[in-house]
Write a structure and sequence with these properties.
- The structure is a single chain.
- The chain has helices at about 5-15, 20-30, 40-45, 50-60, 70-80, 85-100, 105-115, 120-130.
- The chain is mainly alpha-helical.
């Protein structure tokens, strides 16, 4: 069973009254390494599905973002573009790429969803541009 599936199972058991809050929070932390509080656990559904909630908790962050080269960047960009509804992957990959190329948070999401940039090479070229303004 994947981490995501385990988290979904635990949350469903919590929502059905089969587990207590503290036990559920502890198990989620043991599975994912992410801390959630009672408020987030009780209210995630207001802004995201159980699938997305579990997906965000289960997905591994890209820790070696400093070593992302052009070919790996293109793999990450293509992964985002191949399924634009997969929020956890979009978030993970965009954070790593924004860190690597020193872009503000949300820049890649803006380029993909607001400027409709869907060519991986063009997107990479855009995020590689040095837009620092020296004063």
């Amino acid at each position: 069973m994947s981490k995501k599936d385990e988290i979904i199972r635990v949350v469903r058991e919590y929502e059905q009254g089969k587990r207590g809050t503290n036990e559920t929070i502890k198990i989620i932390f043991e599975i994912s390494g992410h801390e959630v509080d009672r408020d987030y656990l009780d209210n995630y559904w207001r802004s995201e599905s159980l699938e997305d909630f579990a997906g965000f908790l289960a997905i591994e962050e890209i820790r070696d973002w400093e070593g992302i080269d052009d070919s790996r960047a293109l793999v990450l960009i293509r992964e985002m573009l191949s399924d634009p509804s997969n929020d956890p992957v979009i978030f993970r990959n965009s954070v790593a790429l924004e860190r690597r190329f020193n872009k503000p948070e949300g820049k890649i999401i803006h380029l993909i969803f607001e400027e409709d940039m869907t060519d991986p090479e063009q997107l990479l070229s855009e995020i590689k541009k040095n837009t620092t303004i020296l004063t």
